[in-house]
């Protein structure tokens, strides 16, 4: 039976007005056990916020890690996305990609930091995503290095466009990146086509290494599904906040 201390979570729903996206975007904000507005907290920002909370069980994992494993208390900000426009916002060639990146860095982060005791140093922010969510997370860090230098990518959709963006950087010694990909992700069917995520992630890993990024790269048995990523999240969270 799941310990009730883990499932008793404080999650606040906020609406962030965005001039960049010409709409209001829903975000969920997890407050850790013992939350105190007089303290300050590091922040985990996630793409696909609904999925991270519902399928990734990120809040439940955080409660357990904070209460029983000694992880530092952390705020978690999950940014919702309209799945019908996900490719437009998360894919580098998407029609709303640039606007979404500006929203994230210039509107979302200031909104959170104006209302919650979030630490404002880039080393205290981690930006995370799965598949294309990992892609946009990396691009945001590359485009806004003063705001983000720590990225968590679960089976990132790191294709040629992303590698071109990485290649444009002279060096990436400032970037800290965790990459995970499942060994069964060699023929993943997506709305954009069928891809070999293992090969694409290996190519991207090699390029990042050549640029001097601080990289942790792992391949494990797993498919391109939340059942795989959910089980890996606790260990990854401890890497960043343990």
Fill in the CATH topology.
Rossmann fold
- Name the CATH superfamily classification: Alpha/Beta hydrolase fold, catalytic domain
Poorly predicted sequence stretches spanning 5 or more consecutive residues:
none
| Strand residue content | 15-25%
Proportion of helical residues: 25-40%
Protein name: Enterochelin esterase
InterPro entries: AB_hydrolase_fold, Esterase-like, Mycobacterial_A85_antigen
Entry summary:
The chain has 242 residues and is an alpha/beta fold. It has nine helices and ten strands.
Question: What key attributes describe this structure?
Answer:
alpha/beta, Rossmann fold, two-stranded antiparallel sheet, 10 strands, globular, Mycobacterial_A85_antigen
Structure notes:
This is Enterochelin esterase. InterPro entries: AB_hydrolase_fold, Esterase-like, Mycobacterial_A85_antigen. There is one protein chain. This protein is of the alpha/beta class and 242 residues long. It has nine helices and ten strands. It has helices at 4-7, 49-54, 58-68, 86-90, 97-115, 132-143, 160-167, 197-210, 226-241; strands at 10-18, 23-31, 43-46, 75-79, 125-130, 150-154, 176-182, 188-190, 193-195, 214-220. It has an eight-stranded mixed sheet with strand order 1-2-4-3-5-6-7-10, with helices on both faces. A two-stranded antiparallel ribbon has the order 8-9. Strand 1 (10-18) and strand 2 (23-31) form a beta hairpin. It is globular, with a radius of gyration of 17 Å.
């Amino acid at each position: 039976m799941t310990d009730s201390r883990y499932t008793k979570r404080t999650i606040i729903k906020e609406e962030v007005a965005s001039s960049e996206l010409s709409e209001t975007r829903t975000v969920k904000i997890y407050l850790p056990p013992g939350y105190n507005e007089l303290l300050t907290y590091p922040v985990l920002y996630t793409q696909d916020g609904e999925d991270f909370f519902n399928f990734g069980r990120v809040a439940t994992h955080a409660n357990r890690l904070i209460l029983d494993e000694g992880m530092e208390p952390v705020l978690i900000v999950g940014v919702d996305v309209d799945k019908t426009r996900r490719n437009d916002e998360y894919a580098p060639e998407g029609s709303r990609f640039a606007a979404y990146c500006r929203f994230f860095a210039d509107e979302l982060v200031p909104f959170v930091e104006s209302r919650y005791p979030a630490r404002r140093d880039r080393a205290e922010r981690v930006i995370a995503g799965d598949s294309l969510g990992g892609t946009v997370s990396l691009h945001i860090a590359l485009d806004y290095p003063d705001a983000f230098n720590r990225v968590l990518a679960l089976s990132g959709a790191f294709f040629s466009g992303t590698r071109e963006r990485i290649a444009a950087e002279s060096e990436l010694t400032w970037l800290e990146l965790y990459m995970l990909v499942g060994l069964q992700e060699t023929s993943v069917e997506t709305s954009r086509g069928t891809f070999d995520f293992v090969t694409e992630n290996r190519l991207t890993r090699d390029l990042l290494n050549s640029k001097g990024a601080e990289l942790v790269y792992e391949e494990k048995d797993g498919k391109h599904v939340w059942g795989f990523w959910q089980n890996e999240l606790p260990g990854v969270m401890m890497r960043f906040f343990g």
